[in-house]
């Protein structure tokens, strides 16, 4: 992989009436929870879009078959965007089957295990959308959160700058997707964002995503660019419902630091850490302690490898609800003195 940051293409806006692909590049959750999938499709139709499914959208399939559907969606000029249904845990095995030659620049929306594909597209100079998987936030019981839906709409239709703000309340517990009458997840008070060294204004392309998946990419050694290629970028980090310990978070960041990566990012956005594993409901005090320990682990790693970095904690991105969609490869401004984060669409 070359030692030069890619030149990012301009993404065309999606318009009402456009066809959009809905794919399952990781776990084919629509095969197991069709009602949730249908709720997400209904939200897309409510935005005036026409969802297009592929053979593996609702079928558990191997990496080569999932890659073939992705390539078909990107190669079809009548399909104006590609949205992942959900994440998973094996998308890394899909990447070798992808053909860069057929890629047409168009929005791809996903997060979690889709960090693999976001990063793969970043390496081609194709910006994408971190967030917006259809089954989690669009197919959400009770309907999508207004902030999540407005954020995805701005990203797809490219309606201009979006200033992010902390949610008043948030949800992190699972709802029962198999229930006949699913109830919305309970909400709790948001801790608010916290800023570390907010002394400057940084505008740069976003890179990063789910920390565990980035660590797998580092371990595979195939998809991470030379450290210098990330200079001046805004780093996005967030952890999953597998709730890695503070020690694990520190070690993963330490490995990135030893590779020379952490020192390249003048600004870092850290997502509000989900403190509930699948259907686990620890008490509020335990959840707060988990998040505090993770913040301390992040500060320790950056203190050792990038002491000048500006860091914003508990941003509503990734595995939390509501979820702000961020331009991945597109520009974000982190304004420390104003305590403001702006996504530029």
From TrEMBL:
Residues 20-131 form the LD-carboxypeptidase N-terminal domain. The keyword Hydrolase applies. Residues 203-334 form the LD-carboxypeptidase C-terminal domain. It comes from the Bacteria. Keywords: Hydrolase. SUPFAM superfamilies: Class I glutamine amidotransferase-like, LD-carboxypeptidase A C-terminal domain-like. Pfam families: Peptidase_S66, Peptidase_S66C. GO terms for molecular function: hydrolase activity. CDD domains: Peptidase_S66_mccF_like. The keyword Hydrolase applies. Belongs to the peptidase S66 family. This is LD-carboxypeptidase. It comes from Spirilliplanes yamanashiensis.
């Amino acid at each position: 992989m070359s030692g030069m940051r890619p030149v990012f293409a301009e993404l065309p806006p999606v318009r009402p009436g456009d066809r959009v692909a809905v794919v399952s590049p990781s776990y084919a959750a629509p095969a197991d929870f069709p009602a949730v999938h249908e709720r997400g499709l209904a939200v897309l139709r409510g935005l005036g879009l026409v969802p297009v499914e592929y053979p593996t959208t609702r079928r558990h399939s191997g990496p080569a078959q999932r890659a073939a559907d992705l390539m078909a969606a990107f190669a079809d000029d009548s399909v104006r965007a590609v949205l992942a249904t959900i994440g998973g845990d094996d998308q890394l095995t899909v990447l070798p089957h992808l053909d860069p030659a057929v890629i047409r620049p168009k929005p791809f929306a996903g997060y979690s295990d889709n960090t693999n594909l976001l990063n793969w597209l970043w390496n081609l100079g194709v910006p994408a959308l971190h967030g917006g998987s259809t089954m989690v936030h669009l197919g959400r019981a009770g309907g999508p959160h207004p902030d999540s839906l407005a954020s995805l709409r701005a990203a797809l239709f490219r309606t201009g700058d979006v200033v992010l703000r902390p949610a008043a309340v948030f949800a992190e517990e699972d709802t029962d997707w198999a229930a006949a009458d699913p109830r919305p997840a309970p909400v709790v008070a948001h801790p608010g964002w916290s800023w570390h060294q907010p002394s400057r204004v940084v505008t740069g392309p976003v890179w990063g995503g789910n920390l565990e998946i980035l660590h797998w990419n580092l371990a595979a050694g195939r998809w991470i660019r030379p450290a210098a290629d990330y200079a001046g970028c805004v780093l996005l980090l967030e952890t999953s419902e597998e709730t890695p310990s503070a020690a694990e978070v520190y070690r993963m960041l330490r490995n990135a630091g030893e590779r020379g990566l952490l020192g390249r990012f003048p600004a870092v956005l850290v997502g509000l850490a989900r403190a509930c594993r699948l259907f686990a409901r620890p008490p509020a005090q335990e959840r707060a302690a988990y998040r505090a320990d993770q913040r301390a682990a992040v500060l320790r790693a950056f203190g050792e490898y990038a002491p000048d970095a500006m860091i914003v904690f508990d941003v509503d991105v990734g595995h939390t609800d509501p979820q702000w969609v961020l331009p991945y490869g597109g520009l974000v401004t982190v304004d420390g003195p104003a305590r403001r984060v702006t996504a530029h669409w």
